[in-house]
Amino acid sequence: MKMLQALALAGALVVSAPALAQEKAAVKPGFTMPTDRPVRILVFRPDVKVGSQSAGGVVTPNAEWTTNARKHLADALVAAKPGGASEVVFMPDLEGENEALLNDYRSLFKGVAATVLQHRLFKGDRLPTKITGFEYTLGPGAAKLGELGGGDYGLFVVTNDAYGDSGRKALQVFGLLMGAATGFGGMVSSGVHAGYAGLVDLRTGDLVWLNADLKMGGDVRDADGAGKRVVQLLEDFPQQGASFPARTAAQ
After folding, report:
1. How far apart are alpha carbons 26 and 97 in whole angstroms?
2. What does DSSP assign to residue 42?
């Protein structure tokens, strides 16, 4: 349910994107990546949805595209070594209660991220109480994830892509031609390409960084495109030794 809410929100924001001034990333004020010790980032399996979009806007999931994209994104995340981390590792496969715990925290992260997207990163629906700070948390229980995977920080990644099928591409061309001929043509989007990534301190459970982009590039179905997508997802990622001051209400 949280995933559906987040994607519905993303879709609504994509439609209104031209009218919104977007702040793509936010960092917890005062946060800095440690420099006095090795940093190990624990990456949770990317939450990836890839499909095709019809002329009518209906999205049909594609299992093969999704599997390929998940692998390519995972490889690119390890190669990126975000924030200058000493080591980037993936959460191992879990079973039973531990698997259920991880799934619960995945859902919780999506819910928290949806709140940040709606009330902090997009000016259209900002709450005054959320502008100057960045106080979001998954709770201290998230420390268990660090114990299970052996990480100092946890990196969550969520992407959603829907590529226009032949019918939608034809509709795009028709819309452009009608617009040129009559001035009344409508712009048809090429599909949906949205994603966000968040970093959680696994000692406290606090969300310390989130980056979102509702119009991402890079075709995640191949390795090169997934590499470009990861660069966008990790834009403004906290670097070792760099601290971030609090924002003012005017910012």
Report:
1. 33
2. E
